[in-house]
Every structure is written in C-alpha cells, then in structure tokens.
Amino acid sequence: MALITKFTVKHLLGLGTKTVQTVATRSAHKKGETQSNSYIIIRPDKHNYSEIVDVMYDSYFRDEPIVRCLGVGKMPNSVLEEEIVRELSQGLSLIAKCKYDGCIVGGAINCGACPWDPDVMDKFACTLSNQKMRQLFQFWAYIQRAPNLWNLTCTRKIFEISHLFVLPDERNKGLASQLIKKSIETGADCGFTCIRVDASTAKTAKICEKIGMKLVYEIPYCSYLGTNQRPVIEPHPTETSVKTYVTTPHFPKKK
C-alpha cells in the first residue's frame, strides 16, 4: 500500500517517477533499523508547505476527531490550509523526513500563542459563511482559552504543539513521541517557559503522559453545546475529551 496516496499536480510534476520508487526504497531500508535511524526531524522551509498540507489531508484531517466529526477535512479547504500555513510561517514547526527518499512522513505544527489569540480566532470564525468551519474555529478558540494558561504560568506567550501527524504506515514506531520531544526542545531553545499540547485523541494523551507532561485541563466533548443544546462535537465513543498537557522546560521538576 502506498504511504502517500494523494498528491497535487505540482507534486506529481516535480517528483515524477521518484514517487513510485519511494515505497520500495523505504521498505528495503526499514528492516532491522530503528525509527531514529530511519528519519530526520528538521524545521521545514517554505517549499515544504504544500507537501505538508497534502500529507496532513492524508494522515491528520481525516482521522482527527474534531475535524472528522464536522466533516471539513476533505481537500480542498482553503481556510484550513491557510491556517496551517499561517502557523508554519512562525518557523517553530518540525517535520520528519525519510532519510532515503526525502518524503515527509510526519510533523508537528507549532506556534506561539498570546492571551488575545482566542478572541482573534473567535472574530475570524464569525466571518466564515460555512457553519461547520465556523464551529471548528469557535471550538479551537474555546480550547485555547479555557485553561487560562497565560495567567496560570505567568507568561504572555506559550509554545503550542497545535497539530501532530504521522502517516498511517509509520505509526506505532515512536515517531509521534519523538516529534513532541523535539518540539519541546525547540520551544525551550526559543525561550518559551511553557509548552502546551491539546490532545484531542486518547493516543496523543497517552504519549503526553508517557513523556511526563502534566495534565492541567480536560474538556469533555459532550460538554461543549451548540445553540440547540446538543454537543457540537460527537466523535467516535473511544474519543471522549480534549486534554491539555503542559511542561515547563526552564523550571526544575519537583522530586
């Protein structure tokens, strides 16, 4: 099965026959090799943005509970794409590339968030004519605002790991964990005193707990109601809430 099943025309023109060869190449090198030896994790350049968005359509938007429930993760979605590029443009994100074919197999879309950002997102949501997209951005604003982390951590800017994605065939190999750890290092190196993950899936929450992040807030999906007093987000029963985890890399951990 192909690892990347969808490309835009410009990617097909740019990669040519290399795309057909990458699956066999990667498979040949994976046997007996650890994840850390197979991939490199780097900051993306602007020329990577289109490929990142395409990979996210294949590996993130179709599976992420909130986007999937609202049915807004199908290509093309210009509003969603522009939001991802906006966050990428901050220069804090990371991608994982296969060493042998250079294809992107995962990534962490990271950004700095200020106390007024939820209000900005709410105002932007009000300008959207598509109801489902409006609900998506309103829920994102609600998640960002609810824990009140700026006051709790006494900081004006928090490092957010906004979106975490790994191609289906590359999952369960520790790559998501490595992306979070490398993102925490990136945030610390850039001077952030608080790193945040809003885990919308049980699997992401489990990774955050495993690497020692602290659970500070939880929003059950059933508690976020629309004007009709029904839950706006009703994902698969295995996904019950968004959990906010933090770590403070510049402060020593209590023993």
Question: What would your notes on this structure say?
Answer:
The protein is α+β, with helices and mostly antiparallel strands and 255 residues long. The chain has a single domain (35-114, 147-247), classed as 3-Layer(aba) Sandwich (Aminopeptidase), CATH 3.40.630.30. 42% of the residues lie in helices and 18% in strands. The protein has eleven helices and seven strands. It has helices at residues 9-15, 18-30, 35-38, 49-61, 65-70, 78-88, 117-126, 131-145, 149-152, 175-189, 202-210, and strands at 39-42, 94-98, 104-113, 158-166, 195-199, 214-220, 241-247. It has a seven-stranded mixed β-sheet with strand order 1-2-3-4-5-7-6, sandwiched between helices. Helix 7 (117-126) runs antiparallel to helix 8. Mean pLDDT is 87; it is low at 1-25 and 27-34.
Radius of gyration: 18 Å
Helical fraction equals: 40-55%
Number of helices in the DSSP assignment? 11
Adjacency order of strands in the biggest sheet? 1-2-3-4-5-7-6
Q: Topology as H/E string?
A: HHHEHHHEEHHHEHEHEE
CATH class: Alpha Beta
The counted number of beta strands is 7
Mean of pLDDT: 87
Q: Which of globular, elongated, flat, extended, rod-shaped describes the shape?
A: globular
